[in-house]
Amino acid sequence: MKRHIIENGAAERSFCKKKPPSYALSAEDAERVVLLLRRYAEDHAPVLSGRVKAVSRSEGHLLPSSHTKYFAHQQYLWSLAQSGHRAVSLSTFKREWKKYCPEIMVSKPATDLCWVCQDNNTKIQRSTEVKQHLIENQSNHLTTVTTERSLYNECV
After folding, report:
1. Per-residue pLDDT tens over the stretch 70-129
2. Contact at 8 Å (CB) between 54 and 36?
3. 130-153, pLDDT tens digit by residue?
4. N- to C-terminal Cα separation, the chain
5. What 3 state SS string does the chain have?
6. PANTHER family of this UniProt entry (predicted)?
């Protein structure tokens, strides 16, 4: 070990002389997948309102049911085709998604949201320029519902 430090400095020791195969996933490729997933979730995931089935925590991102993992992979391929970087396969994309971004989930077709929440989420997903106004409306609705729920619980 002393000889290695003298010759190479504080570099990582490699006990295996084989190089990884050319098709192995590099750190840069994995980082591109994670970056795209996080940006994709920021753009397409609505604000979670109330309790949604299969989501035990509120900090997760719940993509609409129309945005499947296959659809997200197609968007990934399209973005990389323009940049010229190497793309990963669908199975690798799903594995990296599960490994590094478990908080980003695709919603099931049905949720137990009230009609106002469901309508607001649909408008937020489809809007591009008035998203901030719609998010404020959703926040106001959630405040009202929380107040109503606490009043109901006091009465019960």
Report:
1. 998 998 888 888 888 888 889 999 999 899 888 888 877 765 677 777 777 777 777 655
2. no
3. 667 777 788 888 889 889 989 989
4. 71
5. CHHHHHHHCCCCCCCCCCCCCCCCCCHHHHHHHHHHHHHHHHHHCCCCCCCCCCCCCCCCEEECCCCCHHHHHHHHHHHHHHHCCCCCCHHHHHHHHHHHCCCEEECCCCCCCCHHHHHHHHHHHHCCCCHHHHHHHHHHHHHHHHHHHHHHHHHC
6. INTEGRASE CATALYTIC DOMAIN-CONTAINING PROTEIN
- Does the pTM surpass 0.90? The reply is no
CA distance 71 to 80: 14
For the beta carbon of residue 92, count every other beta carbon within 10 angstroms: 16
Listed residue (128, 97, 121) closest to 48, CA to CA = 121
- Give exposure, 101-117, as e/b (b: 16+ Cβ within 10 Å): beebbbbeeebebeeeb
Give the CA radius of gyration of the chain.
22
